Amino acid sequence: MPVYEFKCKKCNTDFSKKSSMAEKKYIKCPKCDSKELKENFTTNTSCSLFAKRLSGG
Ligand SMILES: [Zn+2]
Questions:
Q1: Distance from residue 17's CA to the centre of ligand 1 (Å)
Q2: Average pLDDT over the chain, rounded to whole?
């Protein structure tokens, strides 16, 4: 299952959640329960592994 990173628009909390695509829309801020979240697109998944391999030599 992929891990998504979010930032709460209300209280600015950064958090990450493991979630399926379908469950993603139900995710709430763990701090204030707000659903107004901004999704952070991080590269710490398979993408960065690939990048590391490219630069690592
Ligand atoms: Zn919040």
A1: 14
A2: 84
